[in-house]
Write the structure tokens for this entry.
Amino acid sequence: MSELRKKMIRAMELKDFSPRTQQSYLSAVEGLSKFHRKSPDRLTQTEIEDYVLHLKDEGKSASTRNVIISGVKFFYQHTLVNSEIALNMPSRRKPKILPEVLSREQVRMIIDTPADLKHRLILMTAYSGGLRVSEVAALKVKSIDSARMVIRVYQGKGMKDRDTLLSKKLLEELRTYWKVYRPTDWLFYGKRRDTPMSITSIQRMYSRTKRDAGITKGKGIHCLRHCFATHLLEAGYDVRKIQLLMGHRSLSTTMVYLHVSRNGLAKVQSPLDFIEEPEQQAPPWEDDDESNQ
């Protein structure tokens, strides 16, 4: 491991960055270095800006470019202490895209498709609690609180604990799962019992299951989280309660599901339907004929 990499990891650990953020930032700097085939401490500001423009030309999404820019900024501001590089690049504007949502029947099809019990339970758990894929992977046996019928998420996004819903159906299935797999620490362990199933493995499993179920909508297992929020809204639950269950910092983040809720749209009538059709009037010559009789 190079000295620069060690210094960057140390700086990120001092900032208490999550392992996932650390890996994203390291990959950002590695990509920059590979593009120019130079050590990042030998690059000029123009070369860094050229790389950012290359990412745009390559079609990288605004979210991806923002993460890369943040990683590069961190390297030059906190790893190279005496660097003269001044990166004043603003965040890329993210396009506002409504989440794709599956119907309840489509969710049921996805959950019923896997023959593997563990895979089916992962999908059920993600949907039952509206969990992020990282939160599903990080679940422990102690996360399932059957007495209070909640799933405890430990140190989710933003390093926050929260409780979310534990379905009665899910609890019954988890008891069967426990008898078969006997997890001791991680609820959904990987190849070894002392390590969780990887996020990549879970994403691949979801994509394979969705394909086998014949469903084309809903890219990524995060779609089940969108379905959780939207289906609760459609069932009449308060948006503020859903905000707490989802772990959203801002209510505006949760409000986006109002745009895709079927019930919300069904209550609004198109103004085209307000326009009344004109009454059919008899042609003027019909009146003349009647008067002549």
Observations:
- The CA atoms of residues 110 and 139 lie 21 Å apart.
- DSSP finds 14 helices and three strands in the chain.
